[in-house]
Every structure is written in C-alpha cells, then in structure tokens.
Amino acid sequence: MDKNHQMWSDLGMDLDKHDLLCAALPGAYGDVFLTQENRPQGMDYFNMVAADIHGIRPAELIQAQKEGRKVIGTFCVFVPDEVIIAANGIVTGLCGGSQFWVPEGEKVLPANTCPLIKASVGARLGRTCPYFRIADMFVGETTCDGKKKAYEILSEDVKMHIMHLPHGKRPQDIAAWDKEILDFVKVMEDFSGNKIDIDKLNQAIHIVNEKRKALQRLYNCRKNSCVPISGRDVLLIMQIAFFDDPERLTAQVNSLCEELEKRIKEDVSIAPKNAPRILITGTPMAVPNWKMHNIVETSGGIVVCEENCTGTRYFTNTVKENNKTMEEAASALTERYFNNIHCACFTPNPERIDDILRLAKEYQVDGILNVNLKFCNLYATENYFVERRLKEEGYKVLSLETDYEDSDAEQLRTRVSAFLEMIEANK
Amino acid sequence: MDKNHQMWSDLGMDLDKHDLLCAALPGAYGDVFLTQENRPQGMDYFNMVAADIHGIRPAELIQAQKEGRKVIGTFCVFVPDEVIIAANGIVTGLCGGSQFWVPEGEKVLPANTCPLIKASVGARLGRTCPYFRIADMFVGETTCDGKKKAYEILSEDVKMHIMHLPHGKRPQDIAAWDKEILDFVKVMEDFSGNKIDIDKLNQAIHIVNEKRKALQRLYNCRKNSCVPISGRDVLLIMQIAFFDDPERLTAQVNSLCEELEKRIKEDVSIAPKNAPRILITGTPMAVPNWKMHNIVETSGGIVVCEENCTGTRYFTNTVKENNKTMEEAASALTERYFNNIHCACFTPNPERIDDILRLAKEYQVDGILNVNLKFCNLYATENYFVERRLKEEGYKVLSLETDYEDSDAEQLRTRVSAFLEMIEANK
C-alpha cells in the first residue's frame, strides 16, 4: 500500500470508491488545464498541489494534529479564518465540487437540493474526502435553507458549530454578528484549549490580510487589456486558497504576480486582444468544478473576473489591523466579513449589483455570465434584479443554471458560444 | 355589471382572468365539500363564506377602509395579529393555494420555487386576488429563502414590512424576536396613526385568544373515537379563519362545536368506526388547496389532525393576558409565536417531532401523512429526522411531495389507498 493509501485507510476512508475519483481527476485536470498554451511558470506550484490534492495537504494537516493543533473545516466565506488561526488552529476547505459525491448526499438530502450541499454531505457520509475525515470540528452558518438543515444531518456524524447569519444588515444585525464572532472566539478557545488574546488575533488578521492582498494583486493583473493568466488558472488558485497554508499561498501568489506583472509590461497575453472579456457572477465554484470557465475559455472568451465566493468575495477588503480590544477586533471582522460580503442570502442585497457594475468597469468586461447552481433559490430569485439592472446599464448578460453533471455541457457550450459571437459582432 | 364585478373593477383587478377562477371554484368546491354526507349544519356559514370568498369579505374590508381602518395582509403564522388589531387594523390572509396563480408567479420567480410562493406573488402581480388589491400594507417574514427573496420583488409593487425571524431559539434569538415585535408595534402605529397602548394590546390579545380557544375546542372534538366532522371541513374552517373577522369566526366556530359535542354524545360519526385516522404534518395548505384531505377522505380514511401552519400551529397555546407593560406583552407574544411554533425554518427543530408524537397520541392516530409542497427544502430536509423518529416510535408514515397541479392526483391516490389498506390490514 502506498503512502497516500495508507493515510486514507487510517482515516477510515472508502478506498475503493475514492480510487475511482483519483482515477478520474488527472484526466479531467489535464483536459482543462494542461492543454492551455503559454501558461505562467508560477502555475507549477498549483499544478503540483492539484495533482496530489488529497495527499500532500492532508498529510500536513495530520502532522499538525499530531503536534496538537486543531483542524477546522469551513463551508463558507462568512466564517472568519482569523479566529481559528488565533487559536493556533488550521482552517481547511472541504470537498463539494464534483458530481462524484452527489449520489451519496442524495441518500439523506432531497434531490431538489443544490449540488454543492449534496456533494459536501455526500463527501463526508461516503468517506471519500480526506479533509472531511481529518477536520476536528466543522463550522457551518445559516446562509441558506439547504445548508442550515443539512448541517443538522451532518451534526449527527461530526462535531459542528453553527454561526447564525442574520437575514439583513440593519444595525441590530451587525451587532448580532459581532456577538456571533465573540461567541466563536469562546468556542475556539474551549475546543483548542488555547486562549485567544488580542495580540494573537491581530497577528491572525495580519496573516489573512496578506493573503487577501496577494489575491487582490493577482486579480489586479486581470484588469489589464493584456491578460497574463487564464480564468481557469485563477479559479484553481482561488480553490486551492481555501485549503493551503495561508502564508505559503501568499508567497506563491506573490511570486506568480511578479511573473504576471512582467508579462503585462511585455504585453504577453494568453488570449487574443479581441477575445470577449467575461465576468462571471453567481454561486461558488468548489474544486474541481471548472465547468463554466472551461466552456468560456475553449469557446473563444476569456474570464477576467469572478464576483462570487470563490472569487472577489473571498479577498475583497482587508480587516483593520492593530485592534486594541477583542470587541474592537470583532467589529473589524464584522466590517469585512458581514457588512462587505454581499451574498444573496441577505434581504435586500442591492450592494451586490453595485459590486458587479463596479467590477465590470474595472475589469473592462464585454459580457456578464450569471451562473447559478441548480436549486439555489436565493441566487435564482435575486437574478430577477441582477439581470434587469445589468441590462439597464447596457451590459450583455447571459444567465445560466447548471449543476455538476456533464449532461448539459454541450447545451451550455452552444449558448455560451452564441453569446460570445454576439459580443464579438457588436465589438 | 354586478356588485362584485364593480368592486373587482374598482380594485383594478383583471376581470376576465379572475372570471376564469370564479367559474372553476364552485365546481371544485362542490366536488370536495358538497358531496359529503351528514355534514354538520354549522358548516352552512362556512359554505356561504366559501361560495363568495372574493365578494363578501372584500366588501367588508373596503367598507372598513372607508371608515379609516387599515387592512394588513400577512403570509405566515409568525406575524402577531394582535399588534395589527391593537392599532385598529384588520388582518387578512392572502391568495396562494391554487395552481391558477402559479404561471403569473413564474414570470418573475424561478420555476424551482414552492407553489405557495409562486401563487402568492402571481396572485398579486396578475391582479386576480381582491385581498392582494385591498391590503394597505403587507407584513412578510424571513422564514425561508423563497419567501425572503420573493418579498423583495413584491416590495417593488406594494408597501411591505419584513419581520426578521431568527434561525434558532437561543436566548439571543428570543430577545431579537421581542425586538421585532416592538419594532412592528412602532411600524403599525406610524402606519395607522393609532397609538398602541397596553390596554389596546391586551384587548387584542384577548380577542385572538378567544379565537384560538374556539379552534382548540373544534380540534378537541376530533380526538374522540366518534368523528363528528370531516378533515376537509375543518381544513376549510382553518383556511377561512385567516380571512374572517376574528370575533365572528369565534362565535361561528363555538356554535358549530356545540353541535359537534352533541354529535359525540349521541355517537354520530361522519366516518365508519374502523376508518384509518390520519394525522397530516408538513407544509401549509392555503385555500383552495384541499387536495390531500380530499384524497384521504375519498379513499376510506379520515383526517383527524393537521400539524402544520393551517392546523395546530395556528391556534396552539394562548398568549398571556393582562400584561402590565408593552415589553411584558411583547414577551408574552414571543412566548406564543416564537418559542412555541416549531417550524422547519428553525435549526434545530426537534420540538416539532415531539409535537407530532404528542398529537398522534391525543388524536388516536393510525397513520401519519407527511405532506410537503414541492421545492420546500426546509421541510423536505427535516423529513429525514421526522420520518425516522416516527417510524422508530412505531407509527406508520407515508411521505409525499406534491404541488398544486392535478397531474399527480391519481398517483397520490394510489399511494394513499395502499397506505390506508396497509393500516386497515394491521388494525
């Protein structure tokens, strides 16, 4: 038995089933990523991570656990990494981006649930995700009906803490989120046995801010008319950012950015100058969900920005540093995580449309793809306002609903191609 | 033009379209209700109300508006009627129980939305519901993703106030709901121009309590082995209770109960003694949604209790009377409306299962039908726990998902018949 299989076996994973995933991923990865021409050399690190995504990082996490650190699995960009890091914990993303995990989720969840939730629950219950086996505790949030209730099922199997996300952003909601954060501090202290003082929390804020700044720098490279990196590659980096050690990721992204900034100076673009520049907005794209980016970028378009939770919402704004008290730090975290993340779970949520419009301008966008996962009622309903306003502002918009199955890929490709041709014809 | 058509025209309704509904309802009503044998005479009042449900009560509401009273439309049992009544306002239910309104709703909402929400929005936007035209203001709540976001669309067309329902029942959630109620008092005061003092609020609490006691008395009549009234008739009364004047309804229900109590003494049952006694739990059944009750009761069963928002949740418990301060009254309202309503929107929600088990015993139930509207993710997911626990406790359970279309009626009838036969075989 090789080292990875020994580890997966020790984690109580379903080896036979997981091997099916391991057998399929390299081909899918090769098709989407390795066929690209003129990729930045800085992608080598991310290729390496992706190639052994259930091996290298899980082994690191297990090693950290042996040294007494706690690993905390999170599902959503509302959960503040800083609190976990300040308790000497490690944050990890979780599996949830492939149809592979959906059938197992459907054993306990309604079929009319979004594939991200079904896949996440299925990955845990089917024992086919090392991260879901490793994490010592999971932190959920009440962002949507589907997750809120699915966490009840998960909590029968794992230790969970649920953060209650208010429905709006009124003053009392902001105060309530402050309290959720301070309660979470207490939960993490109790669970880890490590007291979180303001110095540790400020340090953690700094670490995560540096990561955000690196990702902001990466996204800034995409604003130029010369596009030095594909949307696919950026999406992969974002997906890996949820799993990787934050300081190492920061260094790798900054080093990649140096290469990209050089490319911009030298006008080395990975896409033809007239390729339609696409902004994608909507629901998150968990690894290995590369479907839409792949379709756009193999149909003549180039994705230059993602207004979603695996895009700008993950790194926009930083948290105020050097806070004097825990209450001040909680407020600073709320300011960044709550006030400034414009998820469709909030009512009303007009700021999201303002964000899309601002980003569309900054990234010199030619068209907007509004891509939502099937059965995500929040985003599907909000789409009524999003599509109307974007069209009023003169943008070309295509709204698509999809899940993790391949069966609609050709139909999506046809619609995306027609959309890109329409943009090119009007350019 | 007859009086009703004149009124509907004055309300800006789409007369041609609404006439289609008016033409279809009497036949449907006759089939479901008037074919019953040995109905209590006390149902005459409810027959009369149902026969002219878009005529009599709307005319009363318009008359009240002329006298300066405000009519407030509500969608959900969490909104406290008492606050509206204390401001000299009138509470009205709204249309939402028929497929007739769904296509208009689907023009603005995702098809994957529950039919109750699509029908409600469609009834307003299609101008085919007098209540949706009459109400001066609408009070929504953040119970589920679908409603939360649909209210954003409705608020472009009507004046709305949204109450933010917390996700759980922790101490801070209870305090938050207290505040929602006190904020709602202020909203109603401002909107009606009437100050709400503690005396007015206590009076309103008394009025609604009397209505609850009458409905409790009605339901108590169904606990007997002699069943003096059909489930269909009780469902109709419950549906009308959302629309009718509360004091008149109380009197009518009490008078009906005298007849039913006499029937019990004389052992006059509308169902054979061996008919399987069914409890229905799940999502609400808005008028004219009589589908499941009709199927059960024309397949040999008798519905003796509904654990849902158009059933026990509407009247269980009373609100403490004679409160000294507004804060004390708000707490009393929270105690009844928040702590004691066990909706699937809360996480976790084990109390609902306790309720079902208690009711199943009290109503001497032979089988439980767990009936959820399609695309209601909250109830569908919670069903995982409900069905498991009820079966563990030895109950026969059938879970069904349905919408407002007739297309699945025969399939449902087959499944329900098999369920009832299985119960009878084991009796």
UniProtKB/TrEMBL annotation, chains A, B:
Superkingdom to which the source organism belongs: Bacteria
Name of the protein this chain belongs to: 2-hydroxyglutaryl-CoA dehydratase
Alphabetical list of InterPro entries matching this protein: FldB/FldC_alpha/beta, YjiM-like
Gene Ontology molecular functions: hydro-lyase activity; iron-sulfur cluster binding
Organism: Oribacterium parvum ACB1
Lineage of the species this protein comes from: Bacteria, Bacillati, Bacillota, Clostridia, Lachnospirales
Cofactor(s) for this UniProt protein: [4Fe-4S] cluster
Keywords, in A-Z order: Iron, Iron-sulfur, Metal-binding
Annotated family: Belongs to the FldB/FldC dehydratase alpha/beta subunit family.
